Amino acid sequence: MIAKKKRLWIGLALLGVVCAAAYPLWSAWQNYLEKEKEKRAKADIVVIEEATKIWNENYGSFPPCLEVLAEPQPNGDPAVIDKRMLVDPWGQNYVYDSSSILGSLGRDPHIYSQGPPGQGKFISNRFKD
After folding, report:
1. Domain 37-124 class, CATH top level
2. Can you spell out the DSSP letters for 35-93?
3. How far apart are CA 107 and CA 19, in angstroms?
4. Tell me, what's the pLDDT at 97?
């Protein structure tokens, strides 16, 4: 009976050591995945921004919302971007601000991701790093 308990404690201790050794690797992997999501969001924003510029060239103003970019165009052309491009890597829709103030300043619309839920980290086309 004592031998079984001893083996159980040894097994639990080994499991603890393995978990303690694996945690830094798991944490590093999670950080890597998060950075890759941020890179993808930045790349998506560049593509969406270019699509809004194409719309502006074709129709003389920026689109009223991003969804129209993923629909067949009023002139009969196919959609400018795929509908899946409108969702960021965290499953949220990209935010689009085409207010008249930005247009009157000659600036492109503000397009951004709200980033990982609950972290308050925005990824934007306004602040390039």
Report:
1. alpha beta
2. HHHHHHHHHHHHHHHHHHHHHHHHHSS--SSGGGGGS--TTSPPPSS-GGGGB-TTS-B
3. 51
4. 84
